[in-house]
Amino acid sequence: MKKIYFISTLFVAMILIGAVGSTEGAASERIEINIPDILGYKTLKCDFHLHTVFSDGNVWPGVRVDEAWLQGLDAISITDHIEYRPHKDDIVSDHNRSYEIARARAEQLSLILIKGSEITRDMPPGHLNAIFLKDSNPLDVEDWRDAIRIAHEQGALVFWNHPGWDRQAPGGIAVWYDEHTHLLEQGLMMGLEVANHVSYYPEAYQWAIDKNLAVLANSDSHQPMAHDFQPDKGEFRPYTLVFAEERSAEAIRKAMLDRRTAAVFQGKIMGDSRFLEAIFKESVTLEVSSVSIKGQGGTAVQVHNASDIDFRLVAGKSDCSLQVPGEITLSDGKTAVMGVRGTSDTMSGRKTVPISYGVETLLVGPGESLPVTLELEVEFIPLEQQ
Amino acid sequence: MKKIYFISTLFVAMILIGAVGSTEGAASERIEINIPDILGYKTLKCDFHLHTVFSDGNVWPGVRVDEAWLQGLDAISITDHIEYRPHKDDIVSDHNRSYEIARARAEQLSLILIKGSEITRDMPPGHLNAIFLKDSNPLDVEDWRDAIRIAHEQGALVFWNHPGWDRQAPGGIAVWYDEHTHLLEQGLMMGLEVANHVSYYPEAYQWAIDKNLAVLANSDSHQPMAHDFQPDKGEFRPYTLVFAEERSAEAIRKAMLDRRTAAVFQGKIMGDSRFLEAIFKESVTLEVSSVSIKGQGGTAVQVHNASDIDFRLVAGKSDCSLQVPGEITLSDGKTAVMGVRGTSDTMSGRKTVPISYGVETLLVGPGESLPVTLELEVEFIPLEQQ
Amino acid sequence: MKKIYFISTLFVAMILIGAVGSTEGAASERIEINIPDILGYKTLKCDFHLHTVFSDGNVWPGVRVDEAWLQGLDAISITDHIEYRPHKDDIVSDHNRSYEIARARAEQLSLILIKGSEITRDMPPGHLNAIFLKDSNPLDVEDWRDAIRIAHEQGALVFWNHPGWDRQAPGGIAVWYDEHTHLLEQGLMMGLEVANHVSYYPEAYQWAIDKNLAVLANSDSHQPMAHDFQPDKGEFRPYTLVFAEERSAEAIRKAMLDRRTAAVFQGKIMGDSRFLEAIFKESVTLEVSSVSIKGQGGTAVQVHNASDIDFRLVAGKSDCSLQVPGEITLSDGKTAVMGVRGTSDTMSGRKTVPISYGVETLLVGPGESLPVTLELEVEFIPLEQQ
Amino acid sequence: MKKIYFISTLFVAMILIGAVGSTEGAASERIEINIPDILGYKTLKCDFHLHTVFSDGNVWPGVRVDEAWLQGLDAISITDHIEYRPHKDDIVSDHNRSYEIARARAEQLSLILIKGSEITRDMPPGHLNAIFLKDSNPLDVEDWRDAIRIAHEQGALVFWNHPGWDRQAPGGIAVWYDEHTHLLEQGLMMGLEVANHVSYYPEAYQWAIDKNLAVLANSDSHQPMAHDFQPDKGEFRPYTLVFAEERSAEAIRKAMLDRRTAAVFQGKIMGDSRFLEAIFKESVTLEVSSVSIKGQGGTAVQVHNASDIDFRLVAGKSDCSLQVPGEITLSDGKTAVMGVRGTSDTMSGRKTVPISYGVETLLVGPGESLPVTLELEVEFIPLEQQ
C-alpha cells in the first residue's frame, strides 16, 4: 500500500543522489589534519574507542563514520560494551551489528573501519578494548580471561582503556595490578590509553615507556561528537597517530604491534622522540638560515610552521652569543617572527649558532618536552666596519 | 557477577553527580535566544518536527532534548514516522517509546516535551505531524483519514509538513489538493510548515495567510543537529515562535489554535504584522531621538538593537527633508550609526521627521517586508544663526 | 585649480553622508559590554592611557575614538608623552593637538573624551598620567615635581602608570620609592595601574588596597588596537570600570576621587568587594531556587549569567548536606547546569542549604577570590515516602 | 637630562629584543595565503594602493607594512595623495617621507615595498597611481599630463584608480574619456583597478580585456585595516595577484608590464583564463579518478581543494551518462563529496565521463565563469553481472 520513495536520511540522500551543494551549510566537508608523514610512514589519524546506541551511546553507528570523516580521521573502531547494554530492551541485535551497519557508510567514504568491542569489567583488569576482531559475540562470556583469550585467538589487539578513570581508580591515579602484569607477560595486552575523552594519565604514559606498550588516545564518545568537543572553540577529540606503511587496516595493525603510535590530546602529542622529532622537523622551517648582526643589533628571523599543530617552545640553555625569545608559539600554518639580538663587541665573523628550545607541545615523557635545536648562521659585523 | 556502577553517559553523569566544570569544554551551556516577549505574551522558541533512531533518525531520543536545551529552545516535539521505520529489525519498541525515553531528560532540564508522531503518506495529503497526542500507537492504521481522525479525537493538533518537498512536489512547488481543502474545512489541519530544514515554501506561506493557518518552521532533523546546522558558521535550525500566555505545553497548544505563531528561517521571520512589528519595536531604539542640523550638515544617530535578530533595513519613500542611508544592518545586540544629512536652506525650526524603512528580515507576506518608521526630532539651524 | 570634493576618510564619509549599510562589513557597529549598573551607579568602561602619532603611537587621534566606540567603551583619554616625541621632525604641533583633533569625532559618537598627557620620566617616579587637564603645554618643564604640581593646579588627576614595567622595575617587580610616598602624602597621586597592556602587577594592587588608591587598568596602546588585542581570539584591551553617578566626564572625575573604580584585565576584575559582589549578584541568578532530592538522588539546577563576564567558581567549604560541583564556569549570557546530589538518609524536610564558592574571576585582593554563597531551598524526601 | 631607554613601540620592541612569545596574543603571526604558484611563476599577493597620515590616512606608514605582513602579502605600495594633504598643518614632510619611514620596517620583515604616489585629479582623468617611482616630489605640478610624464620618465607604472567611484562617476558607472585613450595610446597607462575597497567595476574589467590593460584590485585603505575588513567575519582586503618570475620588486614590475596579474575581490578572482585555469588545476584534485556504477546506482567521489580559495561550481551542460550535483562548493583546504549516479541499463563497460562545471569564483570576464571539466573514469556494471 504505502509507497515511500525516500531513503533513510537526508545526508545520505544528499551524497548519493548528487544534491551536495544545494543544501547550503550541511556538514558535508571533510577538514584535513595537516600532520606530516614521517620516516617513510603515512601518519594516520585514528580513534579506536567509540560507542553507539548498540551499547550505551546515543548515536546510530553511521554517525561515528560521518563524524570521523568530517573531522579528517583515517580510521575508527566502534567498540560497544559487551557486558553493558542499557538499551537492550529496545535494541535486540547482537554484538556484531553496530559494525555491520557502519560498514557500508565507511566503504562509501573510504574510511577504515576496524571491528572492535569493549570488554567491560571491574578493576582489575578494568575495561579493555579488543580491536581487529572477526566476531564479537564469543566475547560475551563469564570470565574476562576467556574473553581476552578468545579475542587474541581471533588475531585481535587488546589495550587497556582509561587506566586512571576515577570510578575504577580512586583519586584518578591509575594502579597497575598483577592482572595487568599477567596480560603483559602473556602478550595479551599491547597498549594502553594515556588519554581518554577529557582526561590524561601521566602515570600510564610512564608505564607505556617502561613496558614498551603502544600509547593511545581515544575519544570514548557516547554522545554526538559535537556535544563532547567543539572545534570552533579550539577543542578536538583525542586521537591516536599511527605511523603505517600504507593507508590500510592491516598496516595499522602491523604498526600498532610495532609500537609505531603517538597520542594526541588537547593540543599535545605524546610518543617516542624519534617520531616527535621527525614531526617537528618536517613541520618547522626557518625562512632564512643566515643573518647578520651589526654592532649590538638585532634582527628578525621568520619561522614557518606548515603543520596544523601549535608548537609552544621554551628556551633551554642557550649559546651565549645570541639573545633569543624565552618563549615562542608557532601556530598552525603561520609564520612567526623570532627576534634575535647579539653583539659584535666580542664576536666577529661568521658562526653557526645553535638555538635550543624545549617543545612543550611534544612530550617524550610525562612532563618532558622534546629538545630541539634551530641552527642559525650569523655574521657578526663590528660597528666600525659598517 | 558484573558489578557496573557507571551510569549511561558521561553527559548525564556530569550533571547528576555534579561534575560540571571539571569537563572543560563539554557542551553543557545553554545559549539564550534574545527575542523579546511581546503584547503580554511569552515568546517561546519551538521545534515541532524531529526524528530519532525510533524511526529513520540517527540519534537517541535524549539527544533531541539536549540539543534543544543547549540551543535555547523552550519546547520540542519528537515526531517519528508511524509508517516508516527502517531500523525496526534492530529496534522493536512501539510508537510511544521515543517520547517516553526523552521525557525524563526533558523534566530534568525543564524543557517542554510535546508528544508527537509523523503521519507519513504519499501526496496527497503527504506528510502531516500530529502533536499533543496522548497515544501514538492507534495512528498506525491503513487509511490516513482514520489516522488524522484518531489524532484529532485525542486533542492533537495536525499540520502539513514540507508542502514543497521535491519528492512530493515536483520542482519544489507545493500543490494544494482537494484532500487539504477537506482537512481544512473539517478543522483537522491547523497549520503548515512554511520552512523545513533548508527549504522555504513561499506559496505555502501565502496559503497560511489566505486560509488562516498557523505558520511553522521546523528542523525535521534526522542527524545530530550539528551535522545539519553549524552555529559557528551562522547557521541555526528553523524554529517556530509561539506567543503564549505562559511557558507551558497547554499555553503553547492554545496559542497555536489561536494562530499566535511565527516562523524563523535562515535569519528571517515570517508571520503576522502585529507580531513582527511588536518584535521590532521592543528590540530597536534610537539612542537619541532629537538632533540638530546646521546649514547643509549631517549628524550621526545611534540605533541600538537589543535582540539577537539581525535586522536588515532598506529605505522606503522618505520625507524629502533628510537624506538617510539606503540600507542599514542592525546586528544582534549592537549599536549602529545612521548618518543623516539635511539642509537648513529651505528648512528651519524644529520638526519631527518620519524615516521610513522596510525590514527585509521581517516578512509579513512572501517577499513583503514589514514597513517601519523611525521618528527623529530635528532642529534645522540656518548657517547665519551659528 | 584643483576641485576635490571628497572628505577625509571613507569611514567618516560613510557616517556623515548616510552610506552606512552600503559598505558591507565596514567596522561601523558598536558592541555593548554587558556589565550591570550597581549600587545606584552607572558602570562606565574607560581606557585612560592611549597614544597617537603625536607622541610615539602609530595612529591618528580619531582612530582612538573610533576604536573605543566600536568596542563599547564610554570614555577614553589620549595621553601622549610630553617628553618623548620621536615623530617631532615630521609632526610639529603642540601637546594639545591630539586632543583637539579627536574631540570632534568624540562628540559625533557621544564618547567621553578626557584631556590627558603622560609625564614620562626615569624611575622614580617613572611615568605618570595626568587626566582632566585644561592645557597640556605647561607640563613640558624640566622638573617632574613642577609638571605634577601644574597638572594638579589645573584640577587634573594624576596616577602612576605600569609600576612593574620591566624597563623601570628590573625583574618586573614594582618598587615603591620615597617619591611616591611624597606624591601620595601631598594628595598629588590618586591611583595606579594594576594592569597595563599585557602585564599585571599584584604588588601594585596590594599598594592600592593598603594606601587607598584607585585601581586602574589601561591599554597603553601605541599600535592600532587590533594589532595588540584580537577580540575574535578572546582578547580584549584592559580597561577601568568607573562607578559614576551619571555618564559624564565630571561624574567620572568625582568617582575616581572617591575610589569608585575596578580594573578589568584578561577576563578578571580587580576591585573592592562591595563593587565586585554587587556585580556578581546583579549578573547571576538561579533559575529555580527550590528543588527536591529523593532518596540518594540528584537534580540539575540551572544558573543564568546575564552579564558578558565569564565567571569561574571554585567550591569553598560547603555545608555537608549537598554534594556540588568542585568547579563551575558561568559563561557570558549563558545558562549552566549545576548538578547537585544529596541523601535523605540522614536529612529530611525542607532546608535552606548555602552553597559556597570563590569566584576566581573577581579578585578582591592579589590572588584572593570573592566569596559568594548561592542559597538553595531543598526538600529532602526519604525513599519510603515516594 | 632625560634618559629614556624605551624604543618607539612595543611591537617593534617585541621583535627586536626577542620578546616574541611573552606577549600572549599580540598580532605577531603571519597567515599564509595558499594560492598555488602556476606556469613556472611565483604567485605574489600585492596591494598597490594604501594611505597613511602623510596624506588623508589615519595610520603611520609602518602600520601598512605590519598589516601586509600579518595578512600574508608579498608586496605593497604606499600611495599617498600628491594634491590632497589635509594634515599638512600638523605634518610638514615631503612626498617621499611615508616611503622612507616604512622602508626600514619592510626590510626587517622581508616585505617588498614599492615607492608610489596617487595623482589625484578631477575626472577626467580622475585618480591615478604611479608606482615604482624614484622621487615623488616632482609629481607635485599643476598639469596632470606633466605629472604622468614625469612618473613615466622615472620608469614608473601608472594605473587608473577606482574608475567607477561614485564621486567621479555618477551612478557608479565608469566612463572612458578621451584622456584615457590618450594615456593608453601613449603607453602611459598600463592597468586599472577592477575592484577597489568594497566596490567592483565590471565595465572596467571589460575595458581591461578589450584594451589589454593589467587588472588590479587594491584596498585603498585609509583606516587601520581592521576597521575596513575583518578577517574573522570572512572579509579580506582586495588584492592583486602578480605572477612573477621571482619574489622581487623588479620581477613584479616586469610581470605587470607583461599583464601577468589577476584581481582578488570578495572571494572572487578576475583575470585571464590561462592563469585562472592553472590556479584551479593546481588546487583541485579528485581523490579517486575511477569508480564503478552498479545497476542504477550511485557512488561518492571525494574532491580535495588544497588552496585557500573557496571554489563555487555550477553544473554546465553535462554528458548525459551521469547525474551529478547541480552545485558544489569546494571550501579552502577541505575535501567535499560529490555524489554521482548513473544507470547501466543503457551503458556498460569502462568509459571516461567528462563532467562540466562553471567556476563562479573564477571570472574570466564580467559575469563569465571559468569552464572546467573533471574527468571521471566509470565502469558501468549491469545488475545481472553482480
Largest sheet of chain A: 16 strands, mixed
Give the strand content of chain A: 25-35%
Question: Oligomeric state of the chains?
Answer: homotetramer
Counted by DSSP, the helix tally of chain A is: 9
Q: Biggest interface: chains and residue counts?
A: A-B, 55 and 55 residues
* Gross geometry of chain A: elongated
**What is the string of helix and strand elements of chain A?**
HEEHEHEEHEHEEHEHEHEEHEEEEEEEEE
Task: Furnish the topology, listing elements before pairings.
The structure is a homotetramer of 386-residue chains.
Chain A: H1 10-16, E1 29-30, E2 42-47, H2 61-70, E3 75-78, H3 97-108, E4 112-120, E5 127-131, H4 144-153, E6 157-160, H5 178-185, E7 191-196, E8 199-200, H6 202-211, E9 214-218, H7 225-228, E10 239-244, H8 249-257, E11 261-265, E12 268-271, H9 273-283, E13 284-286, E14 290-294, E15 298-305, E16 311-315, E17 322-323, E18 327-330, E19 335-342, E20 349-365, E21 368-381
Helix pairs in contact in A: 2-3
